[in-house]
């Protein structure tokens, strides 16, 4: 077994590998960029080496810097995690050429599965069912459009390299094919350096079911059952579960058998995932699944497999890479209960899932005593850490396990609704709504479920009437306990001439209002603006605050942040800005004639010029952020007066991009 390994990754997965290595007595080396100098994975590793600037192309994707760090620290092997260089066969070759061990499959296995078109041809030869489509080398528009017509619309354009939904477009009509092909190619080129695509038949009620496989260097290969990853948005997984709902023993035998056959066809060693597209329109049938691709690495969603099998997949990776045989044979791997994983991101679900940045001023997950569920929180951040625009905006993976699917799903929703994050917008409310969706609860899942119900799932709740009042009282400090034995504490609300009051400015932008808070006895306050006064009572039980005005009440937890107070209630968070009394600059920062950047990113395409007349909803420019393209559209009919951003510009959130002519 290794004595020291280097982890060529960051964030959550780096922390995950460190946890198992420490348990096994293996020392760890972390690598970090400028942006990650104080990151959690750096703090948790035994050693850490700086490898470059914040952009991934200058740090986490620079193979020679990573290998040099391993040599410098005496690491014997390199664990790639997922993403970055984890599926780069040239990196594997370079690692082995340096006399180090790559904790993963061989370069030849990665190459055989690295391009989707070649992989599907290989699987066809191995007898694994493959989706009808075009996987050839010719990439001319006329050829691809012709093949799409032969296959029959709707079709799916997919980048042949990479994954994560990048370079993927569903096309419903021949009229849209050329535009969607161009967009898919641009995104694929930016993400993978390869703009070649394949075209496949789009399955109308598709389910995404994958099988975890594991091989060793002694010719053995097993499966660890399946995961259902059908809940997706923008072709990226949102909630995963194991096992798949509705799975029959006959279907499982066919699917896992095909997965093991696929692994053995390429002499696979290490952890891998065979992804299948499944026709869910008539239930799960042994003749209704087809090979999509193989991920030659550890998956983001691997914890649900660990929960139902009791097997540490990272430990298996380390043992297999060190030359050991698989720790168990197929008959020794049993399935126990049900598990879900929800990916918590810094993103705005109500605004098209735009990635967000910010400092995690408050970060708290409920414990087992609060939820009554077996759970794991997989994260690479702590309270006080910043979500950077340079990397994936994942905050954590919330994983739960139950005796059956129903109890596990209830635990997932409870745990999500008890999670508290302040400092950036998150998708927690969206995930909680999804966990409570009736169709999902019934197991009626497919990759289109989120899109069909998006309006309900991302609906923003109305701010509870008492939330600003609770926030104002907490911000005023009048409800805070005072330490010490001062006898005047019991009468701190008393003032000889006038009631003691505190003034707090709360609200957002033009909806701000100044509330005056006056203590009115123990646990009672008079709160109001002008003549609108309200008597409320405030009670605290543990972390829970309950405010009541006699007609209604609100129970919530509260967190203070540098910019105000965040109130958490029922799985929703309400951030209320609280004015710094030393700051009186409330000028508006943008007018109605300005189009500003909704997030930090790179301007890829500018589609208009000064003097152009545009219609509401017309595409104006394309930005790239968090490795995804986002189209910004005209908010109204207008004339373009000025373009402030050029293609290739890196802009910050709020930067002026386009100015429209004002109404005369």
Task: Return the CATH architecture of the largest domain.
Answer: 2-Layer Sandwich
CATH topology label of the largest domain:
D-amino Acid Aminotransferase, Chain A, domain 1
Largest sheet, spatial ordering of strands:
14-13-10-11-12-15-22-20
Structural class: alpha+beta
Q: How many strands, which pairing sense, and closed or not: the largest β-sheet?
A: 8 strands, antiparallel
- CATH superfamily caption of the largest domain: ATP-grasp fold, B domain
C-alpha-based Rg, rounded:
27 Å
Number of domains: 6
Helix content: 10-25%
List segments where confidence is low: pLDDT < 50 over at least 5 consecutive residues: 581-591
Strand elements, count: 39
The dominant shape is: globular
Short note summarizing the structure:
With 664 residues, the protein is of the alpha+beta class. Helices cover 25% and strands 32% of the residues. The protein has 18 helices and 39 strands.
Describe the structure.
The chain is of the alpha+beta class. It has six domains: 4-103, 3-Layer(aba) Sandwich (Rossmann fold), CATH 3.40.50; 132-201, Dna Ligase, domain 1, CATH 3.30.1490; 206-336, 2-Layer Sandwich (D-amino Acid Aminotransferase, Chain A, domain 1); 340-460, D-amino Acid Aminotransferase, Chain A, domain 1 (2-Layer Sandwich); 467-577, Glycoprotein, Type 4 Pilin; 594-660, RNA polymerase II/Efflux pump adaptor protein, barrel-sandwich hybrid domain (OB fold (Dihydrolipoamide Acetyltransferase, E2P)), CATH 2.40.50. It is 25% helix and 32% strand. The longest helix has 17 residues, at 249-265. The radius of gyration is 27 Å and the shape is globular. It starts with a strand and ends with a strand. Residues 581-591 have low confidence and may be disordered.
